[in-house]
Amino acid sequence: MPTPRSALLTATAALAAAVVAPAPTASAAVPAAGGYYVQSATTGLNAADNGGAVEQRRPKGNEDRQQWTLRASGSSYVLENTDTAGSCLGRSGDQARTVACTSADAAWEITELGADRYRLKVPGAERFLTVGAKPSGANHPARLAVGSASGLAAWYLTPVTPATSPMPPANERTLDQVTFLTAHNAYANGVDGGFAPPFVNLVPNQSRGINQQLADGVRGFMLDAHQTSDGAILCHNSCTLVSNPVALWVDIQRIVDFLKRNPNEFVTVFLEDYVDPGVLRSELARVSGLSDVLYRPDQTGVRQNGWPRLADLISANDRLLIFTDHSRSADQSTGLTRDTFGVMYQREWTVENYWSMGSGLGTSDWSCYSRWYDAGTNIPLTRTETGFRPLFVMNHFRDVGITSTASTDNTKLADRAQRFCMPAARKKPNFLAVDHYNLGNAASAVTTLNTYTYP
User: Fold this and answer.
1) Which of 173, 181, 169, 429 is nearest to 313 (CA)?
2) Among 112, 97, 103, which residue's Cα sits nearest to residue 54?
3) Topology classification of domain 5-159
4) pTM recorded for the entire structure
5) Residue 28 has what pLDDT?
6) Per residue in 147-200, pLDDT tens?
7) Domain at 165-453: CATH code
8) Could you tell me which of 238, 293, 214, 270 has the C-alpha nearest to residue 391?
9) What residue segments make up the domains of the chain, in order of their start?
10) Closest CA to 263 of 213, 317, 311, 214
């Protein structure tokens, strides 16, 4: 069970108070003394002490020996592991290791690269803390190294406890400053229709239909669309043997009708998409009024200028954003891309953490790392671009949506978001995706996150 946040704050404050040495005047751009994650700008993973070896690990809050206290040491800096007094992030030969903080091998010169990124340099040598090069068909190696000043030697020093700012007034909030309650597998509710083969349908992810979800304040909907002879159908894994499933266009119509009745609301749909683009276009064409509310960030300069104010989107009636997890390259081979009819490719506009915290029973894994980090893909949660910050989808659910487990997990949603996932992504979650949103008061976490902005 993760350590309570209050204890973490107390420990961090105590460590910060113990720092008395002033920062060297030649390195004024270095962050203030205090608790940090040393986070690869390439992978988004954190430097962690593993029995003396320093490895990149999945961000895990105050667990897994990933927190370091930055302080000045003469004309250089050291990073002391908060779990082991006197043990600092250092090096031995070409390998990163924890060493005695008094050792010359613990000292680093820290220089700013821009975009809040830094290099950690060995004093007197052109050698830097770095991530290992990625072998073909594999992830970057876990063990951190000391090597050349390549792009792999760029790091974020992410505060353990960042300074937040009050949320702007409602008419000034940009879309990427707002958090929305999101229903994982919103269609798998056992109310609107069938969603899975026998036995699987005994464990729905939600217990209320789409219309009730909308009435309850759900504003993000995760839908699995499969292709059958009837078109795009909402089913879990497969539509085989599913009794009375719901067509995709039917649930989208429910959402569009809700938006017509509620002109100040904004909704986002996430498609787990197993449908040919032509079939998807035909299904969406059946939705009456979709074009009136469909938001097209690809046509409004968002990548150059950032996300607009939510109030401006509402005023323009741009109030339904649809994402697909499908591959653009796969669609290009067919000659029809989904964004030509208003469905955005999610990996181009968002970041998302791995979808599961574990099985429906037993212990959970609270680590927060990219869903799109593997041998063939590297989209870290920390990804950002000049003038544009991707929206952050935070998944908080298990393999199986057991109600008792979901109820307990949902009470811990704000804590995981603040201590684990916000520092992992260096941004506030925009979509909190849960099973059984009506249990454990997940909405309270949304309310909490909507009181402040992350720097």
Assistant:
1) 173
2) 97
3) Trefoil (Acidic Fibroblast Growth Factor, subunit A) (2.80.10)
4) 0.92
5) 53
6) 999 999 999 999 999 999 999 999 999 999 999 999 999 999 999 999 998 888
7) 3.20.20.190
8) 270
9) 5-159, 165-453
10) 317
